[in-house]
Amino acid sequence: MPASQQKSAIQVFNLFGEFGDLPDVVHCETIATRSVLHDWKFAIHRHARLHQVLMIESGGGEATLEGRVHELRPMCVVNVPVGQVHGYSFEPGTQGWVLTIAAEILDETLLPSEGLRGVISQSAVVRGTQQIRAVMKQIFAEYAGREFARAHVLRALSAAQIGLAARQLVNRRQKSGTTDSNLFRRFEGLLEQHHLERWAVSDYAAALSVTPIHLNRVTRVATGDTASHLILNRMIREARRNLVYTNMSIAKIAYTLGFDDPAYFSRIYAAATGLSPRAFRAQIHGKDV
Questions:
Q1: Which of 84, 130, 139, 280 is the most exposed place for a label (fewest CB within 10 A)?
Q2: CATH number, domain with residue 243
Q3: Secondary structure string (H, E, C) spanning 162-200
Q4: What domain range is 31 assigned to?
Q5: In the listed set 161, 176, 191, which residue is the last one of a domain according to the structure?
Q6: Three-class SS state of 234
Q7: pLDDT single digits (tens) 191-204
């Protein structure tokens, strides 16, 4: 099958097999919850606007991340960024946790100056820690309750979990010495400054005094993704924020994001997320399109 057909065949899910958007601050469920319904196997798919952190408690299996197969063992942590293609084949009876975080929650907690976004934008399997396990259990306990300040505590714990996962990712990279972190952090800073100006990869490369090929090489090492896809993701995040939190028309949002043609913006948004801007806004507000 040609690569273009394979890509179009990848299913886009918002929540581990569901088409609805994330209804809560985060979503928590055990690995077994859905696995027992699917013979412990999940075909490759991607989540349009969700980030997942999965941790194996017992059992194991395999995770396929962006075409690469990784062995899963107890204490493994799987980081699955927004839009990354992944699938699983678990051993029957595998126990563990799946934490799902909406992109908007990440946007509230990730500061460009701290450099976490680039780190967690790479799909990977890393060795977990007792601290990650303890925070995961705290998140699940808080999620199951209805105490005062539940949403605030869930956001804080989820931010801590993302930070701990990022720490493990960085530790692994430092051991391999395969990333130009300074150049990537500069790219991240420029992306925050110029994403509304619709800069192309060549513009960022010129500002960094490198070639587009080299910039793509750096972003692939840092995140597993191309510079152009990271630029697109930043635009989509800004579009979603405007669709959710403002009353601006679709056309006004398109112009704000640097598009001359609102219809073209809508096509780009739908291709990236699986929903048109209008349909997404209607879904958020519980209205028919």
A1: 130
A2: 1.10.10.60
A3: HHHHHHHHHHHHHHHCCCCHHHHHHHHHHHHHHHHHCCC
A4: 3-176
A5: 176
A6: helix
A7: 989 999 999 999 99
